[in-house]
Amino acid sequence: MTGIDYDLMLLLGEIFGILIIASVIGGILAFRYSGERNNATIDNLNARIRSWWMMYIICVLAIAVGPVGAVILFAVMSFFALREFITLTPTRRSDHEALSWCFFVFMPVQYVLVGMQWYGLFSVFIPVYVFLFLPARTALVGDTTHFLERITKIQWGMMVTVFAISHAPALLMLQIPEYKHQNIKLLLFLMIVVQMSDVLQYVFGKLFGKHPIVPKLSPNKTVEGFVGGILASVLLGMSMFWVTPFSPWVAGLMSLAITLMGFIGGLCMSAIKRDSGIKDFGGIIAGHGGMLDRIDSLCFAAPIFFHLTRYFYT
């Protein structure tokens, strides 16, 4: 399902080239401003570039292993994202057993279902069975303090960090006519558009941003950054149509859906952080914050992209 062909090697080569260019630019900037005190932005940039290299290497290794590697990679991402989410939204001691079920039973089962390509159960396991199990098990403990609030946090954490994210590797299970053994490129298309949308919105916002979209929530997100980043990401997606089963225009529309949902996902996660009074969910990825900071856009984009592709192309 994920054979490494010429197009895939070309795509990975292009990403490698971009990272080389970014590393050279970062090195030049660091050398040029090495004597200045206020070079925190450059240090942060180089930290991000190093993290991108690490993520690129991990992705290449996952691709080399095959579908199982991709499933394991996203399962690990979900684990760390869920841990960050639960840490940020504290629960009570009486919730520990329910959380153990989430981390060590429900999350692995969800990704096993993805690996088995069992769409019928994968699509309802967490939204139905886990959703009903968690409040039932917690109620049996007898702790009613903030019961609804506690259960809602756990349920929402499972939905966002596990169920939603698992739709990314689930792209590998789609049976698309005349696109057999190429689904890994569809997954890379999603990841590249999502990540570049975040980067481009940041760049356009820094260069031209004047009007915040939601000042109280995320003052750094501007109308100019949003419009410029979305348009540039759509054009990027259209230019990558050759690695997808889409035409250029459909690739652009898919990119638009991905970037819009990614933007909404980022806003929702920013609302959680703002409410908690923190800047990042964690510090696991240098220059990027926590795992959930890196995949907040993917949480909302992956399910929409998966179902749009499944509905129209399978």
UniProtKB/TrEMBL annotation:
Q: Which UniProt keywords apply?
A: Membrane, Nucleotidyltransferase, Transferase, Transmembrane, Transmembrane helix
- The domain of life is Bacteria
Q: Name one GO molecular function term.
A: nucleotidyltransferase activity
Question: Does this entry carry the keyword Membrane?
Answer: yes
Transmembrane residue ranges: 12-33, 53-77, 154-174, 186-204, 225-243, 249-272
- Signal peptide, first to last residue: none
Q: Does the keyword Iron apply?
A: no
Q: Which PANTHER family match?
A: PHOSPHATIDATE CYTIDYLYLTRANSFERASE
What name does UniProt use for this protein? Phosphatidate cytidylyltransferase
**Taxonomic source organism:** Xenorhabdus anantnagensis
